[in-house]
Specification:
2 domains, OB fold (Dihydrolipoamide Acetyltransferase, E2P), 15 strands, alpha/beta, 249 residues, globular, five-stranded parallel β-sheet, Rossmann fold, five-stranded antiparallel β-sheet
């Protein structure tokens, strides 16, 4: 008899300023054995400590915290420390920004029990699928990317990629003379690229370091990467330190 592979519980951190909402999410998570509750926190500073200390898999977070926004919190974390994230807010306009941060989901508040349970079941299903297939991902195993476009599949070699731009669940691969669209987030594609030449310089941009021509400073706090194709790409302050460490500058 073939033994069924056990999937580890999804280690989850909840960050919500309202105590009643925080407790409701915590109690609901305990009703789902697929989840393991790491902690219930009310602000960004507590959340950052918890994330760095315990490395949760999943983060439930209100976009508006007493000391910092959820988006600013994530900007201050390295990519290695960023959990998969579900954003919550009373403001629907925050959903667009949440997509730019590769949100697993966006929950409109006030939060309802049915809404929360539906989101949890959906995540469990997607988590199991990704857990089964992540080792056999064609992007991870090869040094080229397959992109379906129309009625054909394009095979794009890593060396051809100048940079990758993205917004929400769609990204574009930029080469010398063409662009290719794929339905995937920047965070996911960076995790799957089996090559350390690719580096994130902004929440919406990944570059191929081998195609980088120079770093340009414009003003006291604005830095850009100039690529071999002469594209000028902004380096955000939250990624500049990691980029400089990679380049030993």
């Amino acid at each position: 008899m073939q033994r069924r592979r056990v999937v580890s519980p999804i280690r989850t951190l909840v960050v919500e300023p309202q105590a009643a909402v925080r407790q409701m999410i915590g109690h609901t998570l305990q009703d789902h054995p697929e989840y393991s509750l790491v902690g219930l926190k009310s602000n960004a500073s507590e959340a950052v400590y918890e994330i760095r200390a315990h490395r949760p898999d999943l983060l439930f977070i209100n976009t508006e915290l007493p000391d910092q926004s959820a988006f600013a919190l994530l900007d201050n974390l390295s990519l290695q420390h960023r959990p998969k994230t579900i954003f919550m807010s009373r403001h629907l306009q925050h959903a667009i920004t949440a997509l730019q941060y590769s949100a697993l989901d966006f929950l409109k508040q006030p939060l309802q029990a049915d809404q929360l349970n539906t989101a949890l079941r959906k995540i469990i299903l997607n988590w199991k699928i990704n857990n089964i297939h992540e080792r056999s991902s064609p992007i991870q195993e090869q040094r080229r990317i397959s992109i379906r476009t129309g009625n054909k599949v394009i095979f794009l070699e890593y060396d051809q990629i100048d940079f990758i731009s993205g917004s929400g669940y769609y990204i574009e691969f930029h080469t010398d003379d063409k662009k290719y669209l794929m339905r995937k987030s920047l965070t996911d594609i960076l995790a799957n690229l089996s090559d350390n030449r690719f580096k994130r310089i902004h929440r919406s941009t990944i570059i191929n370091l081998d195609h980088m021509k120079e770093i340009v400073r414009k003003g006291p706090r604005k830095f850009f990467v100039k690529m071999k194709t002469d594209h000028l790409l902004r380096i955000s302050s939250s990624y500049r330190k990691e980029l400089y460490q990679e380049l030993n500058i």
